[in-house]
Amino acid sequence: MARLEDALGDDLLLVTQNIDDLHERGGSRTVIHMHGRIGIALCRSCGRPSAAPATLLDRPPCPHCAGRTLRPDVVWFGELPYDLDLIGRALAECDLFVAVGTSGAVYPAAGFVASALEAGARTLELNLTVSEVSSVFDEVRMGRASELVPAWVDELLAELRRTA
Ligand SMILES: [Zn+2]
């Protein structure tokens, strides 16, 4: 995904449901964490983020307001995911939508493919098993992300070079 970002720049929007830093460790610079980040603490009093300590169980103080009101900056069930406006705008104008490793069962993310199709995008699912939304994708490839994603990126970069 980092190689793709190098080639596409702002034409790539990488949205993840991962709350860890997998993509950043892979070299991606701009990552939309729609379900938040476990490495960040969010203060319920002042609303500001800070680097999360190893545990919040002993109720450490917020570095900004000293309130002992920190929670993980992670979107729990029933809470609204982050950046849905930004994601919605990108879906409305995307020409290729690719979903990697998803159950397709958790909304709103499970509905992204429908929005992309509505926008006229080509859609591709890379997944270990059939998901609840596999049937609506133009193309589905089954296998491990560690193999499917690099192969797909190679293919797309070659296609971009041909049409450049
Ligand atoms: Zn605070």
Provide an overview of this structure.
The chain is α/β, with parallel strands linked by helices and 164 residues long. The chain has two domains: 2-33 and 83-163, Rossmann fold, CATH 3.40.50; 36-74, Rubrerythrin, domain 2. 29% of the residues lie in helices and 21% in strands. It contains five helices and eight strands. A three-stranded antiparallel beta sheet has the order 4-3-5, with no helix packed on it. A three-stranded parallel beta sheet has the order 6-7-8, with helices on both faces. It has a two-stranded parallel sheet with strand order 1-2. The protein starts with a helix and ends with a helix. The site of zinc ion has 8 residues, from loops.
Supply the key terms:
binds zinc ion, 8 strands, alpha/beta, 5 helices, three-stranded parallel sheet, Rubrerythrin, domain 2, 29% helix
Fourth-level CATH superfamily of the largest domain: TPP-binding domain
> Strand tally, please?
8
Strand order of the largest sheet: 4-3-5
Indicate the CATH topology of the largest domain.
Answer: Rossmann fold
Structural class of the helix and strand makeup? Answer: alpha/beta
The backbone outline, from C-alpha atoms, is elongated
Radius of gyration: 18 Å
Order of helices and strands: HEHEEEEHEHEEH
User: Mean of residue pLDDT?
Assistant: 95
Q: Roughly what percent helix?
A: 25-40%
- Could you list the spans in which at least 5 consecutive residues all have pLDDT below 50? none
